[in-house]
Write a structure and sequence with these properties.
The chain is mainly beta. It has a domain at about 275-385 and about 395-430: Thrombin, subunit H (Beta Barrel). It contains three helices and 48 strands. The strands form eleven sheets. Strands 24, 25, 30, 31, 32 and 33 form a six-stranded antiparallel sheet that branches. Strands 1-4-5-6-7 form a five-stranded antiparallel sheet. A five-stranded mixed sheet has the order 2-45-44-43-42, with no helix packed on it. A hairpin with a 2-residue loop joins β30 (about 360-365) and β31. The longest helix has 11 residues, at about 280-290.
Length: about 575
């Protein structure tokens, strides 16, 4: 189940187009605000919406309301809630009422609303980030700045507690041997790279006794098998709070992906070898600020800015790791390492002047990199506004949380021999613009924003160059593979081209919009959805390239079903209109 705490909206310019409307499968009103939403992805799931004082739980299949209660009706020990966390697999909802030194944690059954337990034993559980759900054991790990506790979810029974692991769990990986590896992060999290951020607060937290920990713990006893320090800060994206860290266990090693690759012996925790990079935030972030695009927002001042995907993640294949080693703007390389020994096999020629290398791909005996192009940005901005007052127009400003993209130059595509590291070719055809690229058999498919290209992987020779103006979807912002097609997502619609010939198969124009993403996923089944700044939605059938639309209230939230055949719209009400939930058919 996807848990969403409504904190921000996405803002883009709006135009006026339309096709058929999506069919309404059901719709019902809810008598409270939507401060918290948890959506079950399938028809067999349940979902809920909640304000700080009241909750409604319903069935996804038919919209039947299973129950509605005020939280003080569930237990008189809480009057309002600060956070909720649904564990759909276990059918439970965890509720948090936070008061300094008097925090309450409540567990209820999702389907019935039955109270299972209330506890004040877990203080300073700041957010859902403190909870790790262990699916197979029906237990949950609670981590705080003071300790870590494993409890049985349905009873609240404490299994074990240890003060040898402190801080929020940034990521974890199960070892398959009854143990778990955890990496911690500071309570509030580091929220990405700020152009203008509260560095004083971060520095204060860094000096408060927090210790970076990477630990392996016996899940049965809580015994810490080994502990290892790690270097750096686990970052989170500014708005979505996605943690920029990942761990895997492979061939007796723990692999930590965080600003590079760090390897540890899984049995002992001893560091083996690592390659880390520095994204040179000051220089690059100031550059990104000047290139950022948030749609048609008019005059806006950036207060905080996070840019993501500036450096591609390492690629591990056939016992080797291919890693971008970014020292600074003048010293950047692709390096190949033997995963067993950590020995460098080769280093590529220097990649000059690159501010970003967001793409790294390995196939057969070729390594392809994307230098520059479109990267993700998230920001807090203030925007000037003019409103009608008693004495005419009154000026002011409004703070907004927005997402967008930035084009980072220089832009080119380079190919290297995977055996020797020798550069085979370089193309700067996209030097004026580039969205992204992907590999399609023996070809590189890449988009400049205004044209679609296919290049022979071996030689870099162009197979075709197809202008996108006839698509009538404005500039492209993303391309992705779908069956035999290249799907082009434009600022104002979507089109499909044959990947072999580049010929336009079909296209449909829509308003100025951006695709709905979930964990990087854009396509759900055979469908894709676009959303405008005003919460108008268009769901495209990628087979026919036709779309159906629904114009929701501004600020609405939407969630796709796993198969893409339906979409759930949550529209909050106000003084005049009630909140409502609508399930729409996309076919």
């Amino acid at each position: 189940m996807k848990n969403v705490f409504i904190l921000f909206s996405f803002f883009l310019a709006v135009a006026a187009y339309g096709q058929d409307e999506m069919s309404t499968l059901y719709q019902f009103e809810v008598p409270h605000k939507f401060e918290h939403i948890a959506y079950g992805e399938t028809d067999l799931s349940t979902s809920y919406v909640a304000s700080s004082k009241e909750i409604t739980v319903f069935q996804n299949k038919d919209g039947k309301v299973l129950w509605n209660k005020k939280f003080n009706e569930i237990t008189d020990q809480i009057k309002k809630v600060d956070d909720l966390f649904a564990v759909g697999e276990a059918g439970l909802i965890f509720i948090f009422d936070r008061k300094v030194g008097k925090d309450k944690m409540v567990c209820i059954e999702e389907v019935t609303g039955k109270l299972l337990w209330v506890s004040d034993k877990f203080q300073d559980v700041d957010s859902q980030d403190n909870l790790v759900f262990l699916k197979d054991s029906e237990e949950i790990l609670i981590t705080t700045k003071n300790d870590a506790s494993l409890i049985r979810m349905r009873t609240g029974e404490l299994v074990w507690r240890t003060d040898k692991f402190k801080g929020i769990t940034a990521d974890y990986v199960l070892g398959g041997d009854g143990s778990i590896v955890l990496i911690n992060m500071r309570e509030a999290g580091a929220v990405g790279k700020f152009l203008f951020g509260d560095f004083a607060t971060l520095a204060k937290k860094a000096a408060s006794g927090f210790k970076n920990q990477l630990v392996r713990v016996n899940l049965n006893t809580g015994e810490v098998i080994w502990e290892q320090a790690y270097r750096g800060i686990v970052e989170q994206k500014l708005l979505t709070r996605e943690r920029l860290v990942d761990m895997k266990i492979k061939d007796g090693k723990l692999l930590l992906f965080m600003k590079g690759l760090h390897t540890f012996d899984y049995t002992t925790g001893q560091p083996l070898w690592s390659v880390a990079y520095d994204e040179t935030p000051n220089e690059i972030m100031n550059y990104v600020k000047g290139q950022v695009k948030f749609g048609s927002l008019g005059m806006a001042k950036v207060q905080q800015l996070g840019a993501y995907g500036l450096v591609a993640d390492p690629v591990i294949i056939n016992g080797f790791a291919y890693i971008l080693d970014v020292k600074d703007k003048r010293h950047q390389f692709v390096k190949k390492y033997d995963m067993q020994t950590g020995k460098m096999v080769w280093q590529s020629p220097e990649i000059s002047d690159a501010r970003a290398i967001p793409g790294l791909y390995v196939t057969g005996d070729k390594v392809v990199i994307q230098v520059g192009g479109t990267v993700e940005v998230q920001a807090i901005i203030t925007q000037s506004r003019v409103g009608a007052g008693l004495s005419g127009n009154s000026q002011g400003s409004v703070e907004k949380a927005v997402s967008g993209v930035a084009e980072v130059k220089p832009m080119n595509v380079q190919c290297f021999d995977a055996t020797t590291g020798k550069q085979l070719w370089e193309s700067d055809k996209m030097k004026k613009g580039m969205t992204n690229l992907y590999l399609d058999n023996n070809n590189v498919i890449v988009c400049s924003g205004k044209a679609l290209y296919s290049m022979d992987l071996a030689s870099g020779k162009e197979n075709y160059e197809v202008p996108l103006k006839p698509d009538n979807i404005s500039d492209a912002s993303l391309i992705l593979p779908y069956n035999e097609d290249v799907i082009v997502v434009g600022e104002k619609g979507v089109s499909a081209h044959n990947s072999t010939t580049g010929s336009l198969r079909a296209s449909s124009r829509y308003k100025f919009s951006t695709p709905i993403r979930v964990g990087g996923q854009v396509v759900f089944g055979t469908h894709m959805a676009l959303v405008t700044s005003g919460s108008d939605y268009a769901v495209y059938d990628l087979t026919s390239m036709k779309y159906k639309n629904y114009d929701a209230r501004s600020g609405a939230s939407a969630f796709f079903s796993d198969d893409g055949k339906s979409i759930m719209i949550f529209e909050e009400g106000g003084l005049v209109r009630k909140s409502k939930i609508t399930k729409l058919g996309t076919e």
